Amino acid sequence: MFGLYKDVAVLAAKRAVQSWLAALSIPIYALVVVGAAVVAAPLGMIGGFLVGFVAAACFGAYLSLLSASLDGTKIRLADLKNGLRAIWDVVSVFFAFWVIGLGVGMLKTMAGPKADAVAGVAALAAAIFFNVVPELIYQSRSRSFALLKESADFVMEKAFVWFPPNLVIAFVILWATNTLTFSSPGELLVRLSQLGSVGGVLSFIGGAPLWMAPLLIAFVHFAMVFRGLLFRELSSGSTRMRAFRRSMER
Fold this sequence. Notes:
The chain is an all-alpha fold and 250 residues long. The protein contains 12 helices and no strands. α2 (20-40) packs across α11 (213-235), α3 packs across α5 and α6 crosses α9 (185-194).
């Protein structure tokens, strides 16, 4: 599979450079969400829902740009605004996560002193089984809980092909932000699970030195393009994937 990873990485690098505006949109959308959070803070729960809608709109907009990046389509400044129309695709998934979060919250309440352990296991499970949710949002017709199930099915079927390069990407981000540690396996798992969410990735970027932030943003965009292309390849039933499956069955 190293040949597949190499080919996808080379194409991802070309597509990432071509779609530099999509990379630039990451800090722009992040600032929009932060601004919305500041404005909506006095509104309590209603403000929280409003910030959630803004975050969904911005995340959907970036995924829309990412989809164009994979196809090699030229991205224009106007596309940064047009992509906001993908909000409902993301909201349906956010709603599913919200419902699951309520369930985890109930389990934490019943767990008593073991609440932190329950939360940690739930976060790690979500980072694993829902790992391809971003790719499915813009490459699948499924939505809400059906999309989460499709993500879990994909991971269970192709985990040995999907996760190795994604772990490399995660370790690069942790190393670059000086948060990579092997002395505490539990702490390492927590940090890896944090990288399974948009907020977690942005928090690592935000905690990095100012001079490093642009480099991390460019790398994250490359990583997202790589993931999108790899997901497309693994989902297409290519000759290389069929050969790999045959080798695994022997």
